[in-house]
């Protein structure tokens, strides 16, 4: 095969950065492909890959932070499009919040790193969490998410009652212990 080395690719890269990427961001924004779900606890928020949104709602429900109809007390930005990120959507969601939890499966934490860069460039000082409160690899089921949400709220919104989530985690652990015969 043939590889086109620079400088032959410079024009293509310039078009991608100056024309295609901005057009893609405009399209994502104008078509409202990403969704914001408001919540009463405006000091914190959650940014989630769109495919994990239902798992997140289940975890919030189990923790007593959402109702059966999907209304969450914690604001959520659901990224139905994870590339390209739309800087204005990210900064608007994070601005004014003490902390945001980024939920993305897989490693490394590409979305979390991109969001961190966007926030710093925009001088938005919201504390960003992700893989520091969630496991690095593996599936993000309800138990993993409840643990991360409880940890986020303990650090940045201690006024929020997370006792429901803690009780659910204890019950899950007790069930696991019984099943293992311990």
Order of helices and strands: HEEHEHEHEHH
Compute the average pLDDT.
94
What is the number of E strands?
Answer: 5
Largest sheet: 5 strands, mixed
Strand order of the largest sheet: 1-3-2-4-5
Portion of residues in helices? 40-55%
Helix count, per DSSP? 6
Portion in beta strands = 5-15%
Shape, per Cα inertia axes: globular
Report Rg: 19 Å
| Distance between the amino and carboxyl termini | 59 Å
Low-confidence stretches: none
The class by helix and strand makeup works out as: alpha/beta
Question: What do you see in this structure?
Answer:
The protein has 182 residues and is of the alpha/beta class. 46% of the residues lie in helices and 12% in strands. It has six helices and five strands; from the N terminus they run αββαβαβαβαα. It has helices at 10-30, 53-62, 87-94, 110-121, 142-156, 163-179, and strands at 35-37, 44-49, 76-79, 99-103, 127-129. A five-stranded mixed beta sheet has the order 1-3-2-4-5, with helices on both faces. Helix 2 links the parallel strand 2 (44-49) and strand 3 (76-79). Helix 2 packs across helix 5 and helix 5 (142-156) runs antiparallel to helix 6. The chain starts with 9 loop residues before the first helix and ends with a helix.
Q: Can you summarize this structure?
A:
The chain has 182 residues and is of the alpha/beta class. The protein has helices at 10-30, 53-62, 87-94, 110-121, 142-156, 163-179; strands at residues 35-37, 44-49, 76-79, 99-103, 127-129. A five-stranded mixed beta sheet has the order 1-3-2-4-5, sandwiched between helices.
């Amino acid at each position: 095969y043939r590889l086109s080395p620079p400088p032959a690719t410079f024009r293509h890269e310039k078009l991608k950065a100056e024309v295609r990427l901005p057009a893609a961001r405009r399209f994502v924004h104008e078509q409202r492909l990403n969704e914001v779900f408001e919540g009463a606890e405006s000091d914190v928020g959650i940014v989630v890959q769109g495919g994990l949104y239902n798992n997140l709602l289940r975890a919030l429900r189990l923790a007593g932070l959402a109702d059966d109809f999907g209304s969450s007390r914690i604001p959520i930005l659901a990224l139905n499009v994870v590339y390209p990120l739309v800087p204005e959507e990210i900064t608007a969601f994070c601005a004014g919040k003490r902390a945001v939890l980024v939920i993305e499966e897989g490693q490394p934490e590409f979305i979390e790193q991109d969001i961190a860069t966007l926030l710093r460039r925009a001088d938005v000082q919201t504390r960003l969490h992700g893989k520091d409160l969630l496991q690095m690899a593996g599936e993000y089921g309800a138990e993993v998410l409840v643990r991360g949400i409880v940890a986020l709220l303990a650090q940045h919104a201690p006024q929020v009652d997370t006792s429901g989530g803690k009780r659910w985690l204890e019950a899950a652990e007790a069930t696991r212990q019984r099943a293992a015969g311990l």
